[in-house]
Structures are given as structure tokens and as C-alpha cells.
Task: structure prediction
Amino acid sequence: MTLYDPSSDKAPGLLARAARAAGSRQDLTQGGGGNVSVKFDTELMLVKASGVRLKDVSPRSGYALVNYGNIRRRIAAGIGGEGEFSDFIRAQALPMKGVKAARPSVETGFHALLNTVVVHTHSVYANILNMSAEGRALGLELFPGAEFIPYRAPGPQLCSAISERAAARGPQVFFLANHGLVVSHSGVDGALELNEKVNETIRRRLNLPAYPASRPSAGINESNAAALARRGKTFFLENVLSPDQALYCGPEALEGRGEMEAVNEVLGALFYILDGIKAAGFTPRFLTAAEAAYFDTMESGRYGRQNQQ
Ligand SMILES: [Zn+2]
Result:
């Protein structure tokens, strides 16, 4: 196979456009959350690189090239053990001309299974449904064709759950419990429109307020500090809503030490979601102790914060 040259193909531009649209809004992605992919040729796919923020993806950097045909065949044959599958995905990265090699996103597995363009965000609107006991019923009413995936840890477990409902063609919408939203479509515009339609429908139905952008701060910013004080730090540490909370909002981060830009974005999103759940008269649904503990053991390993998404 000849070496892929991103500068003479349109896929990198399409990927960067999808990434910027999803990554430049804090109500859709916070910190290193979310990922996008574009399939082209018969079996090739560009997918956001692990550890890169969506808004930093450009036509020349921030993504990996993989053979999604190999990944589909592997998933069909059985995902196997967690570490094994992650190593397999990592080994699928192909060299590109003039673009630095990068590790494919931890979510590359489910991207491989879906239609041409996949946009995965941590939309605060979708997450009001995903992180509440009553949200699924409202989601089914608003989006009868959507798929609702019970909580699974990001990576192989989530990929396995999505594989049972995935279609290689046609638009699809997935609500991922305690995690986020995935849309797939045949084109970038279609995917972004579908994504926006889902968000707008929820915003209207729940009459949600405008999303307040997180203010940069050397420590916890003022609005997050106030919300944290209101709810209590201990409560917040003991009740985990999402993988992002587990990874970004540990005891040190709540003391103002860590990647504070990401921490403030994630905290802002969590408080917006909790407020939205309360205003709707819903009940928050937190991760179980075992689900939350998964991230303690993974933090320094494969699914470390630096590898996230
Ligand atoms: Zn995610």
C-alpha cells in the first residue's frame, strides 16, 4: 500500500471541521472529552488521536489513520480481554506522510462500526437524560429511533455494547448512560445537523437555560467553587456521575491542583447537568461504587487521563 498523504485528500479537512464544530463548545465537550472520525476509501478511517482536544485537531495534526475493516473483523470475531483489545486498536495505527504518528482514540472501536462520519460528544443536554433515572423514558419519547446504551466503561466494554446495536449505514443516534451522545451519518454536515437537532430538542423540551462558559482560573473558578460549596466536596467525591468526573475531579483537582482548564470545564458541565436534572424533577443516577472504582485502577494505566478519549 502506498503511504497515505493527508495533504492530497479531503478527509483530513472534513475531520477537522467536525472536530472544531464539536470541540469549540463547552456545552458539547469539556477537557479532552469527545471524539470524531471520518471513513474514506474502502477500509480507512481518520479518528481523533488519544490525548488531543477536539478543538486542536487540524488537517495536519491530532488524528490517527486506522484500517477500520480490520477492527470490524476483530470485533465480529470477539473483542477478547480489555488490555488485548486496547493493544490491538493501538497496533492498527498506520503511518501517514507528513503527519506525526499518534495513538488512536480509546473509542476507535465503536467508531469503526458506524456510518461514514461519527461525532461523539459529552453534550450536557443529552447527559441530563443519560445521568438521571427518568431520562431514558423521556429520551425514548423524544427520539423513538435512538439507541439507549446502559453504562459501560469507555473502551472495549462500551464498544462491545454498541456493537450489538450498530449499523454500518444510515444515520444513528446513541445515548450512552452516564457518558454522552454519539451520532453517525453519511456526511459531516448531516452528522453535525443531527447532533444539533438532538441537543436543541432536549433544550426546548426541558426549557434549559443558556450554557454559561467556564471562566479560566488558576484554581477552581468562582462559580464552580460556589456550586461545590453548596453541594459539599465530600458528596461530590463520593457520588460520581461520569468517567470525566472520575478522571478529572479527584481530591487534588478539587483543591485546585491539576489541569485546571479541563477541571473547570468538567465541573461546570456537571453542575449544569445536576441543576438540569433537579429542575426537570428528575433524580440523578450516579455510577455504582464498582463502576467508579474502575477509574482508580486505570488512572495511571491504560485509561490514564493523558490517554483519555
Ligand atoms: Zn466519551
In short: The first helix runs from residue 11 to 23. Residues 222-307 form one domain.
